[in-house]
Amino acid sequence: MKKWLGSLIAVAALSLPALCVAEVAVIVHPSSAIASMSEDEIARLFLGKTKSFPGGAQAVPINQNEGSAVREKFNETVCKKNASQYKAYWSQLVFTGKGTPPKDGGDDAGVKALVAANTNMIGYVDASVVDASVKVVFKVP
């Protein structure tokens, strides 16, 4: 019984960070002509299947650091991959020379600052940190 209870507590503790993220906002520079993007368009950018925004402008996707609850929710919801699947996906593309994964931009503040300063970047943050320095093009509930 103690083993079962310990396992249950461990699972709950590991799940807690993902539950704390209420909503993820996909953001671009405020001057971007992009008003909104679909989940599929965003997934294609973060999986290296396309390198440009829907209008044709170059897009540079920025991830949050590995292990962040926001990154976990984004990858599972938008890219349809858990952390190990996402890492394995990019490892295979890098090994075969078919792609370079998005750079890690840090936490919410780091990603927001990068996107706010670069017109061709796209990233994601916890929706609670969004302000006028960036534009939201998609929300992950």
Structure description:
- This protein is of the alpha/beta class.
- The chain has a single domain (22-140), classed as D-Maltodextrin-Binding Protein, domain 2, CATH 3.40.190.10.
- It is 43% helix and 16% strand.
- The protein is built from five helices and five strands; from the N terminus they run αβαβααβαββ.
- It has helices at residues 2-20, 39-46, 69-79, 83-95, 108-117, and strands at residues 24-28, 60-63, 103-104, 121-126, 135-140.
- Strands 3-2-4-1-5 form a five-stranded mixed beta sheet, sandwiched between helices.
- Helix 1 (2-20) crosses helix 3.
- The longest helix is centred in the N-terminal third of the chain and has 19 residues, at 2-20.
- The radius of gyration is 16 Å and the shape is globular.
- It starts with a helix and ends with a strand.
- Mean pLDDT is 90; it is low at 4-19.
Summarize the structure.
By secondary structure, the protein is α/β, with parallel strands linked by helices.
Q: What order do the helices and strands come in, and which of them pair?
A:
Elements (H helix, E strand, L loop, with lengths): L1 H19 L3 E5 L10 H8 L13 E4 L5 H11 L3 H13 L7 E2 L3 H10 L3 E6 L8 E6 L1
Parallel strand pairs: 2-3, 2-4
Antiparallel strand pairs: 1-4, 1-5
Helix pairs in contact: 1-3
Number of domains: 1
User: Tally of extended strands?
Assistant: 5
Main sheet record: 5 strands, mixed
Residue share in helices? 40-55%
CATH topology-level fold name: D-Maltodextrin-Binding Protein, domain 2
What class do helices, strands and sheet pairing give? alpha/beta
How big a fraction of the residues is strand?
Answer: 15-25%
- What's the order of the H and E elements? HEHEHHEHEE
Write the CATH homologous superfamily.
Answer: Periplasmic binding protein-like II
Mean pLDDT: 90
Number of helices: 5
Q: Using the CA coordinates, give the radius of gyration.
A: 16 Å
CATH architecture: 3-Layer(aba) Sandwich
Low-confidence stretches are 4-19
Cα-to-Cα separation, first versus last residue: 36 Å
The neighbouring-strand order within the major sheet is 3-2-4-1-5
The general outline is globular
